[in-house]
Structures are given as C-alpha cells and as structure tokens.
Amino acid sequence: AATAATLKALTPALFAQIAENGTRLMEGLRRIFADNRVTATVTGFPQVFHVGLGLAEPARDYRDLTRINRAGYVALTTEMLYRGLRCLERGAWFLSSAHGPEVIDETLAIAAEAVKAVKAAGRI
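^ thats the sequence. predicted structure below, dont judge the formating
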C-alpha cells in the first residue's frame, strides 16, 4: 500500500515543483557566493547538484575536482550545521518534495550567514 501511494504521488507536477525549488536554491547560492566574492560553482540538475568551492568553472574531470577548496567547504557546512542546516561535506545537494519555498528561503538565509561568517574567519 505504501509503495502504491508513493508511486501515485510521483506526478509531473511534483517533479516540476522540485525543479522549480531546486532552481531557485541553485540561483540563490550562486548569488550568495557572488555577492560575497567567493569563487564557487553550483552545477547539476535542480533535483541534485554540486557546489564546488574554489572552482571558477564547472569541473570536467577528476583533475578539476582536486582544486576544490575542501577545507573551506567543510568549514562552511559546519557553520551551516551550527545554524540548523545539514549539508553534505562532499558538495552534493539533494532536493525532495519536502523542500518547499519556505525551506528554500530558510536554507538561503542560513547559507548567506554562514558564507559571511566563514569568509570573515578567513576560511574561504
């Protein structure tokens, strides 16, 4: 019964909602990094994307990924965690139907605070 209910809930409208919210989150993160003069890429799909701190262009291969500022990103995700937002330290972000507009607004507010704090501390 749970499987049937889940499959019925997976509608084109649901996927469109996730895409809309994910796009807004990606664009908001890009804006936060740009406004704070932090070099970073936000690439992928609205439902699952990657933040590459320290990259000026999207990674094309493994060598590009070795230039990511891992220590800075871990500092950033730790700062976000202190503020109530759990992000993966590897840079991957995943969206679901639970991530509505209010969650996106809160996430962007926390990310903006965290970026400013980590930058002021000289970690990024």
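The longest helix spans residues 12-35.
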